[in-house]
Design brief:
The chain is mainly beta. Among the domains are: about 150 residues, Glycosyl hydrolase domain, family 43 (Tachylectin-2, Chain A); about 70 residues, Immunoglobulin-like. The chain contains no helices and 40 strands. The strands form 9 sheets. A 5-stranded antiparallel beta sheet has the order 1-2-3-4-33, with no helix packed on it. A 5-stranded antiparallel beta sheet has the order 5-6-7-8-32, with no helix packed on it. A 5-stranded antiparallel beta sheet has the order 9-10-11-12-31, with no helix packed on it. Strand 22 and strand 23 form a beta hairpin. The radius of gyration is 24 Å and the shape is globular.
């Protein structure tokens, strides 16, 4: 599956997720959340249509914006089903355009890559089958779409249930990775106009799938996914050149089941990955972070988690050499919550962290050429307009930086948060002659005043977008709270 996080222009991280029924209609809605380098919430956006909308990946674009890739329910326009759905935003999550593409009763996108010309190529899954690619321009308009199979649709015979990842190589062609119905991994090379150049799959000596791909600095690519060895699932790296020749394949084992959902190449030419491991006891799944050198040798491996399930879905390299890890947790928060953290490679074991040992084994995969044909795929394209909202609850687990004294609901309240032009401060009725101060992220005091009533409104319309600290001092307590101005 494609990445769900990307480094933002301010040096922090922005990631995609979903939430239930944010607009009082039904089903799921897509969500973007942007955090600063220190983990403060800068802005949130929620996108929804009348029925189910779900993001499966988020791509950071060259202009600092984002492309959300997923699916949306078709019940409002056509027969019930699912269609490929894209939302293109600027760097603040405001929509530039939305598009939906319908081919059959069940289509959705799993990953995308930004092309050299500013457009995008999307891969995913489609009913009734076949390897599915969609190529669009920078404004979302369809350029071409293809299905690759052994026989003319709808009599599919390729046994390709899912294309998980796509990357563009230096020659302009695309490498697509996925899995075959037999339990094998599958890799295809498609040129810039949608012609199939070759397709290869592994033999079925091991159950294996390739679920993420990244173009590498040497012109090739690295693909990752699960592989079954001796009854357990380990992490698999497959490194190839631009012609599809395999340079090396390695499996990574921590002693239980492991899987990786994200892969990036780092500035030192190595690789960083996020996923999960069942090595930790008694937790069923812990978030797993793995850092290797350029040939896949382990430099650093670590896990994080509480007493329940914690999964790492994405990793992003920070400007200072650290790493943002984004995933989800059932150990903390409410039910299932998003889980974001920042680490460096010298962490001392704080914040639910466990140092673990990762064993590397060379894997000899046998690849076979298979014959597929290319078929044009007729898509119905429409705008896919959505509602946009904002707001998310953030729970600090291991806070850093300025200490916050969070207000008790029966005491002092500072709202809304995030805010736009005004902030309201509510005090207990018996509080008199309270002091109010507002500081910016650099610690500079922006305003100070006396508060003589139980409710005071601050006009912030002249303040720049960013993070501010509101400090309220009453006769009995002091409350400080971060507030985001959007």
């Amino acid at each position: 599956m494609g990445n769900n996080a990307h480094r933002s222009l301010n040096g922090g991280v922005t990631f995609a997720t979903w939430a239930y029924d944010q607009f009082g209609m039904s089903g799921r809605d897509m969500v973007l959340i942007s955090l600063s380098d220190q983990g403060d919430t800068l802005w949130t956006r929620t996108y929804g249509r009348p029925h189910n909308d779900q993001s499966f990946s988020m791509l950071g674009t060259a202009d600092g914006g984002y492309l959300i890739v997923g699916g949306t329910d078709t019940s409002d326009i056509i027969n019930p089903g699912q269609q490929l759905y894209l939302i293109r935003t600027d760097a603040f999550g405001d929509t530039l355009w939305t598009r939906a593409y319908w081919r059959s009763s069940y289509d959705y996108g799993l990953a995308a890559t930004e092309c050299f010309d500013g457009g995008f190529t999307i891969v995913g899954t489609s009913s009734p089958g076949g390897l599915y690619l969609v190529r669009i321009g920078a404004q979302g308009h369809l350029i071409w779409s293809r299905v690759f199979d052994k026989r003319d649709p709808p009599f599919f015979d390729s046994q390709v249930p899912t294309a998980w990842g796509v990357a563009q190589l230096v020659d302009g062609s695309f490498i697509v990775c996925g899995n075959h119905q037999s339990g094998a991994a599958l890799v295809s090379n498609i040129n810039s106009v949608g012609d199939l150049l070759w397709t290869r799959r592994t033999d079925i000596g091991n159950v294996v799938a390739l679920r993420q791909i990244v173009a590498t600095q040497d012109g090739g690519c690295l693909m990752v996914g699960p592989i079954q060895i001796d009854g357990d699932y380990d992490c698999l790296f497959v490194k190839s050149d631009s012609l599809g020749t395999i340079a090396w394949s390695r499996a990574y084992d921590c002693g239980g089941d492991e899987s990786l959902f994200s892969i990036i190449q780092t500035t030192d030419s190595g690789f960083a990955d996020a996923g999960y491991t069942t090595e930790a006891i008694p937790a069923p799944h812990d978030m797993y972070f793995l850092k290797t050198d350029s040939v896949g040798l382990v430099q650093f491996s670590i896990s994080f988690g509480g007493s329940s399930v914690d999964i790492g879905q994405d990793v992003v390299e920070a400007d200072d050499g650290g790493y943002f890890i984004v995933g989800y947790t059932k150990s903390f928060g409410y039910d299932t919550s998003m889980y974001a953290m920042k680490i460096n490679l010298t962490d001392d074991g704080a914040c639910y962290q466990n140092n673990i040992s990762t064993i590397v084994t060379d894997v000899n995969l046998v690849w076979q050429d298979i014959e597929l044909e290319s078929f044009s795929s007729l898509l119905i394209e429409h705008s896919g307009a959505c509602s946009v909202g904002r707001g998310a609850t953030v729970l600090p687990l291991c806070p850093v930086g300025v200490d916050e004294v969070m207000p008790d609901k029966s005491n002092v309240q500072v709202f809304p948060n995030p805010a736009t032009a005004r902030i309201t401060i509510t005090l207990p009725s018996n509080s008199t002659r309270s002091e109010l101060e507002v500081f910016n992220a650099l610690g500079e005091r922006m305003m100070a005043s006396r508060v003589r009533s139980s409710q005071t409104m601050i006009d912030c319309s002249s303040f720049a977008r960013g993070i501010y600290l509101v400090k309220v001092t009453t006769s009995t307590t002091t409350v400080t709270q971060r507030v985001v101005l959007e």
